[in-house]
Amino acid sequence: MAPYSLVCRTLIIFAGLCAVAQCKLSSNHYSSTCPEALSIVNNAVIAAIKKETRIGASLLRLHFHDCFVNGCDGSILLDDTASFTGEKTAVPNNNSVRGFDVVDDIKSRLEKKCPGVVSCADILALAARDSVVYLGGPSWTVELGRRDSITANLTAANSDIPAPTSNLSVLETRFAAKGLSVKDMVALSGSHTIGLARCTTFRSRIYNDSNIDGTLAMSLQRKCPRSGNDNKLAGLDAQTPTYFDNYYYKNLLKGKGLLHTDQELFNGSSSTDSLVKKYVGNPSKFFKDFAKAMVKMGNISPLTGSEGEIRFNCRELN
Ligand code: HEM
Ligand SMILES: *[C@@H]1O[C@H](CO)[C@@H](O)[C@H](O)[C@H]1NC(C)=O
Ligand SMILES: *[C@@H]1O[C@H](CO)[C@@H](O)[C@H](O)[C@H]1NC(C)=O
Ligand SMILES: *[C@@H]1O[C@H](CO)[C@@H](O)[C@H](O)[C@H]1NC(C)=O
Ligand SMILES: *[C@@H]1O[C@H](CO)[C@@H](O)[C@H](O)[C@H]1NC(C)=O
Ligand SMILES: *[C@@H]1O[C@H](CO)[C@@H](O)[C@H](O)[C@H]1NC(C)=O
Predict the structure, then answer these.
(1) CB 165 near ligand 5, within 6 Å
(2) How many whole angstroms from 61 Cα to the centroid of ligand 1?
(3) What is the pLDDT of residue 83?
(4) Is the pLDDT of residue 1 over 70?
(5) Which residue, 28, 219, 267, 275, has most beta carbons within 10 Å?
(6) Nearest residue CA, atom 7 of ligand 4?
């Protein structure tokens, strides 16, 4: 009995150690195993944005859509195979998420330098931060040490990522389910200060919503007819779609949110109105809250320790 319980206690102690030390994310996770990891990612992200400005927005969104589906585990990067269905054809992702080739490029640069060390999930977290910084937004320290999933869940991608037709209470519920507060949700939505959206995602807003600026609605209706042109693009922030600033919130005050969900955050009497106004008047408060919320989002249920794997190719299981 004694040796057994000793083994047992030892195991519990090790499990406890893992929980408090080794298995938590840390900013210096690669400092001895791949000291150049951060600069490799940063250089590749900057090169990709120089080639196409929009890709910074696309990389930021990839991290969001990864984290909201079973945590930040690189699951969104897995391709479908004959025996495996990934998340890429889920409604919020299909014909919409982009940047996979940039992630492949970053991964292959990392594999050359330190094979089998840096996870695909961590690449997404770093690329999101580096994109925001390069486009003029705030910086933050990225916690690292996520491992990659050995599975994906299309059903969860469809149910957990909020739709652009959602109302405020649904948005709050979706974010709360991931441990994110209303303030986190409003700050993270400021991501829509960069990037583009397809006609199909804002059609019902520009024809049916009454809380949209008339001039904006008219000009969008010319681009996005009642039917057809589904993939026609418009800036989520019509003013400065390639610059990470607080124009997103300024637009909301004027009824110029592009998505129905954007305008849900400000309607003159919604519970989030005051936060939107705060971010309009105080851009550095927005930057601070955004950075904090990104770290929080990046901490959603990571795989650590010996869970999952470090994929060699982000698109497939080892
Ligand atoms: C609050 C709930 C959210 C909803 C309903 C939502 C919905 C959408 C939709 C419909 C698009 C356009 C996609 C397309 O037309 O292909 C989009 C784009 C985008 N979203 Fe969100 N989003 C939300 C929150 C977030 C968050 C939390 C982030 C990042 C932390 C984010 C980052 C982005 C970016 C950067 C783009 C532009 C991507 C590009 O140009 O490739 N969104 N979002
Ligand atoms: C995804 O998009 C493709 C190409 O447009 C389309 O054929 C397919 O039906 C879509 N899948 C889903 C699940 O919507
Ligand atoms: C996938 O996600 C759905 C919805 O969250 C859940 O009901 C289901 O159990 C998950 N499937 C697997 C295999 O984990
Ligand atoms: C928000 O949308 C959900 C789902 O469509 C609906 O059940 C709920 O009644 C709506 N809430 C408000 C306040 O409109
Ligand atoms: C506007 O709303 C109605 C009723 O919900 C819907 O049937 C129609 O498709 C919507 N129009 C557009 C352009 O989305
Ligand atoms: C504004 O949004 C709140 C919360 O979703 C809702 O209760 C209220 O009816 C909306 N007011 C207007 C004027 O649309």
Answers:
(1) no
(2) 6
(3) 85
(4) no
(5) 275
(6) 170
Q: pLDDT tens digit string along 87-128?
A: 999 999 999 999 999 999 999 999 999 999 999 999 999 999
- Phi/psi at 260 (5° precision): -55, -45
Return the CATH number at 79.
Answer: 1.10.520.10
Looking at all shown ligands, the one closest to residue 255's CA atom is 6
Q: Which of 79, 80, 88, 94 to mutate to test the pocket of ligand 2 (most atoms within 8 A of CB)?
A: 94
Q: Point out the ligand 2 atom lying closest to the alpha carbon of residue 94.
A: 1
Domain stop point among 137, 161, 185 = 161
Spatial CA neighbour of 53 closest among 230, 229, 244, 239: 244
- Cα distance between residue 313 and residue 104, in whole Å: 7
Please count the structural domains in the chain: 2
Residue 167 exposure: Cα atoms within 13 Å on the Cβ side: 4
**Ligand showing the shortest atom-to-Cα distance for residue 53:** 1
Q: What is the pTM of this model?
A: 0.94
CATH number at residue 219: 1.10.420.10
> Residues 156-212: pLDDT tens digits?
999 999 999 999 999 999 999 999 999 999 999 999 999 999 999 999 999 999 999
Q: Which of 29, 63, 65, 260 is catalytic?
A: 65
Cα(205) to centroid(ligand 5), Å: 9
Number of Cα atoms under 13 Å in the Cβ half of residue 148: 26
29 catalytic? Reply is no
CA count, 13 A, side-chain hemisphere, 18:
11
